[in-house]
Amino acid sequence: MKSNRRKFIKNMGLATAALSVNPIFSLSSCSSQLSQANSNRDLDKIQVQIGEDIAVARTTEGKVKGYIMRDIYTFLGIPYAASTSGENRFMPPQKHKPWEGIRPTVFYGNSAPQEIYSRASTSYDMFIDQWNYDEVSEECLTINIWTQAIADGKMRPVIVWLHGGGFLRGNGIEQNGYHGENIARYGDVVYCSINHRLGAFGFTDFSSVGGDKYKDSGNVGILDIVAALEWINKNIENFGGDPNNVTVIGQSGGGAKVSILTAMPAAKGLIHKAVSLSGSAITANDKEYSQKLGEYILKEAKLTSKNIDKLQEMPWQEYMSLAHRAAKKYEKDIGGSGMRRGSFAPVADGVNIPQEVFYSNPSFGSPDIPMIFCSTFHESSPSRTNASMETISIEEVKDILKNSYRDKTNTIVDTYIKVFPNAKPIEILSLIYSNRKTIVEAATAKSKQSSPIYMAWFGWCPPLFDNRMRAFHCLDISFWFLNTDLMITHSGGGERPRKLAYKMTDALLSFARTGNPNCESLPKWPQFSPDRGETMIFNDVCEVKNDPDREARLTLD
Known about the structure:
The protein is of the alpha/beta class. 29% of the residues lie in helices and 14% in strands. The chain has helices at 5-13, 124-129, 181-187, 199-202, 220-235, 253-261, 287-300, 316-333, 394-405, 409-419, 425-433, 437-446, 464-467, 477-480, 488-491, 495-514, 550-554; strands spanning 48-49, 56-59, 62-65, 67-69, 72-79, 102-104, 142-147, 156-162, 190-194, 241-251, 273-277, 371-376, 453-458, 534-538, 543-546. The strands form two sheets. The protein has a twelve-stranded mixed sheet with strand order 1-4-5-7-9-8-10-11-12-13-14-15, sandwiched between helices. Strand 2 and strand 3 form a beta hairpin. The longest helix has 20 residues, at 495-514. The chain starts with a helix and ends with a helix.
């Protein structure tokens, strides 16, 4: 199976990192509430503290012990549910058994079973994204927490990060930009990231062949996230957080997970704000499709409904290979060219996830909460690692797009040139590939609820690869979490990206506190409305524009 973030964009519409230098620069913050404690701390003093009575916190399953890194309490790999192997495979997440004594939580938990991205020394993608992976296993339901203090009664806002990688790959710290230390220090929030089941282990739908026992099997990966949120609700006060003020934020596949959570009755009361970055959804996988795929997998295994439980006994590598073979056969039989990206994804079962367009059925019980939607100008930039693409002509752009848009190609390209007159041909191609159709559709669907919506478009471009990277997919993550000096293979590092990072982090912190991203360091950010399309443009100079690509985007219909 070949699967990566760029494929996810097309289908959706279009070992811990050692912190080198933490931001110690002071720009204007969102409000006087924002803490800049330790911003000028003494870097010559001891940086990490760990010991028998240091960073010990209580959870519902027992005590955990982390460490204090540069004054930030850090807990890594806390289990929020039991292992998903054996009889728990394909089942909703089960409670973890209590443990005796104090459990060390000093390194990230195992990644869910998946095919890891290439980490070859010749891979430019590896250089850019710096993938962090260690052990992979079904004992993967863990949470990481960064906080300024534990059990002090302060009730800090909680930010929960959901990783990207579609629904097939990723983990809570796969990129250094996901790290929580800087935002926990600067904003005095509790920052969490989680691992959950993916791919064929999280989203194989056996509901039509496995009986009532397997009725939720197509959605256990998203139910894992709900279980993590339930754990947060019960435990986060012990880590200095407010269980009644939880913001979920995710990018790419994580952005789609955020959208799905905001449509799930089970998440109501567990999340209070949401941020969807470069990935959104207004529907889940078709139930008929997912059930048929489950039937193909059972047939590929040469099993029947009577002995389906044997699939729980297979080594995970064997089951994953079998499931992917079956998915490819199914896709071929229905007229595709191979296993498609949507093969293993959350299912619109009508119980956990609505079968209607999200937010359209008030009786389904979806959370009605404030949301931010954001995407990047150049989610997919063909010339990023292919310099020869940089000088293509407009006619070559049209030739490339003809297979997709046929007789509409000229109109689409000419309109994009009209709307973006200063864009080079390669940038026109990238803007079309990276169009905002799905994210605007998601925001428009969400507007049927009463809570406010805010829209952003990230256009900042780094200087790397001779300026060819542009505002690419994943670039904005490190800006939201004040990690541009950590994820330097994305931003290049230094003052220029840091200035924008402070502004975006200020907005996120204000949103996490109040449900409104407006802050002193940005121009007034109005709510999004479908008719005006108010959009905050993030760049060296930030400004608001009303639906800046509407004319061009509508040609894609």
